[in-house]
Specification:
The protein is mainly beta and about 350 residues long. The protein is about 5% helix and about 45% strand. The strands form 3 sheets. It has a 17-stranded antiparallel sheet that branches. It is globular and about 70 Å long. It starts with a strand and ends in a 6-residue tail after the last strand.
Length: about 350
């Protein structure tokens, strides 16, 4: 039986080679399909030096910039941890969160569809412009244990730079996330005992996905995926002596939420919306089969106040009975927040 594991815990401040910050009480062991680590080693090449040699000389380690990647089915707790890691939670060490709220269900509060949230469930809401406040993004610590091979890796100052969600016909909804790490190195066995979310909690699947609101007059949709780009920069300041970065900062670019939607039939309303850069409200929901309490099930909503098509492609005209197309879109801000993500699960806090 494979005994490897991946553990994620939030950091109060960004960690680095010299700093091991306080970690979140919330601990997640991710049921990954894949988790990859890359130390990002760069070496000094000295072959340009005049030494009277006609053979290569040894490289010297110059710098390290860790990278990680995660692929998993879209489980509610995994999604919550990645969103909390990308956009913050307003916990200790962060400025008060205007971008995030967590509300415990009480049979009175409601979800984005107006349905009450039962006691035992928690509604997590991230609203653009996303946090956390300040120059640094939210970061986390991870352990990737190749236990059967006797190899263990730790990442500190790890951050989420991209999240992609896809919901194919079979295999369950999938999440693909990646980012960097201020420190990533081999460590001794951390002697952790994995504790996973119960198998009774099912991942989100195609049968639970609903495009509740989209462009008026749009054609029948056959596929939908969502992407989040969250630029982050790792910096080697002159404040510490290390081959690793010691500063983790938000990148200069904006957080972008984009995606694509496929259409089974060509509809002129979609074409016109692309031509005219039409803004339209949209709401997409994923709901699990698993009940948290009462009638409240695990669910996730992505809501856009002013989505726009950015480009698209139409199926070539030919001797076919069905001709459709696909369109890429992005979320933009008009009179209100460009994006609101709402997750209902059984986790009271990611702090």
């Amino acid at each position: 039986m494979p005994t490897g594991y991946v553990q994620l815990r939030g950091e109060q401040i960004p960690g680095n080679e010299a700093v091991s910050p306080t970690l979140s009480t919330k601990v997640l062991y991710v049921p990954v399909d894949e988790f990859s680590v890359d130390q990002g080693a760069a070496f000094l090449d000295r072959n340009d030096e005049l030494r009277g040699l006609s053979e290569p000389v040894p490289h010297i380690p110059q710098s390290y910039e860790g990278k990680w990647g995660l692929k998993s089915r879209l489980y509610p707790d995994t999604l919550g941890m990645l969103l909390a890691s990308a956009f913050g939670i307003g916990a200790t060490g962060e400025t008060a969160a205007t971008h995030y709220t967590a509300t415990v269900g009480n049979g009175i509060i409601t979800d984005p569809d107006g349905t009450v949230v039962a006691t035992g469930a928690t509604k997590h809401v991230w609203v653009a412009p996303f946090g956390p406040a300040g120059a640094s993004p939210k970061t986390f610590n991870f352990y990737a244990a190749y236990k059967d091979q006797g190899a263990y890796f730790q990442g500190k100052g790890a951050h989420v730079e991209s999240i992609a969600i896809d919901t194919p016909e079979a295999g369950g909804a999938a999440i693909d996330a990646s980012g960097g790490s201020a420190y990533l190195n081999a460590v001794s066995d951390p002697s952790l005992t994995p504790s996973y979310e119960t198998l009774a909690t099912r991942p989100f699947m195609r049968g639970g996905q609903l495009i509740a609101t989209w462009l008026t007059g749009t054609a029948t949709s056959s596929d939908f995926n969502l992407n989040i780009a969250n630029p982050v920069e790792l910096v080697r300041s002159l404040g510490t002596e290390s081959k690793y970065p010691d500063v983790v900062e938000k990148g200069e670019g904006l957080v972008l939420v984009t995606g694509s939607i496929a259409k089974r039939q060509l509809d002129i309303d979609d074409f016109n919306a692309l031509r005219d850069a039409t803004e339209f409200a949209a709401k997409v929901r994923w709901r699990s089969d698993t009940v948290i309490a009462a009638a409240t099930r695990y669910a996730f909503w992505a809501e856009f106040s002013a989505a726009q098509y950015t480009d698209g492609s139409l199926d070539p005209l030919g001797n076919k009975r069905r001709l459709g197309g696909s369109f890429n879109f992005r979320a933009t801000r008009n009179a209100s927040a460009s994006v609101t993500f709402t997750l209902i699960n059984n986790v009271a806090s990611y702090a």
